[in-house]
Design a protein that fits this description.
CATH architecture: 3-Layer(aba) Sandwich
Helix content: 25-40%
Low-confidence stretches: 92-96, 154-211
Number of helices: 8
Distance between the termini: 13 Å
CATH class: Alpha Beta
Number of domains: 1
Mean pLDDT: 74
Structural class: alpha/beta
Order of helices and strands: EHHEHHEHEEHEHH
Strand content: 15-25%
Shape: globular
Strand order of the largest sheet: 1-6-5-2
Radius of gyration: 15 Å
Length: 211
Amino acid sequence: MAALPFEGIGRQVVLGLKYRNRRGVAKQLAHLMVRRLHLGGVQLVTWAPTSPARTRARGYDQAELLARAVAKELGVPCRRLLYRSHGAPQTGHSRAERLQGPSFRARSPRQGLRVLLVDDVVTTGATLLSACEALLQAGVAEVVCAAAAATPDARGQARPAQSRTVATAGSGSSSTSTPRMPTRSAASTFDCTSSRNAVLPASAPNLARAS
């Protein structure tokens, strides 16, 4: 599930968080995710961590910021359960390269938990799939995957979600170059985007089966 299509103002705001140190928008994105995606019923929130090199360069992990903000909105704990085993960042890779996904190892939590797994942007779903599998192997009972934004599918047909589901958003590809940042008011007004076009469906069958 994803709260926004990765285009227009939504794309600019998310990339501002990733590349321009606009950490403050994490709270707004988290509020939007909770309100649009109905993320209640989870007992713990975690995130799909970015690469250590990216984290050092930025000084923070944007997925962690989102996860902690979402957990605060939901009133549940946020814990780091995932670690990248190896692999370069996904940014700039082709779709075929992205589909291979990074590798994760997971810390074993208390058994039987329903965990919300948060990421900033879904492109192919490979990152969340790999992270989801690691959590399930570590003993998590159920994984709900959610992102702030997701790219349209290959035909550019982003469709509204028809029902709630335990999975991640649709696949696709898009440029991730740093965009021109929006006006001062954009970060506070992007929430007004029509919800009919804002939520992408869960359309990765492998993720649906895994979770």
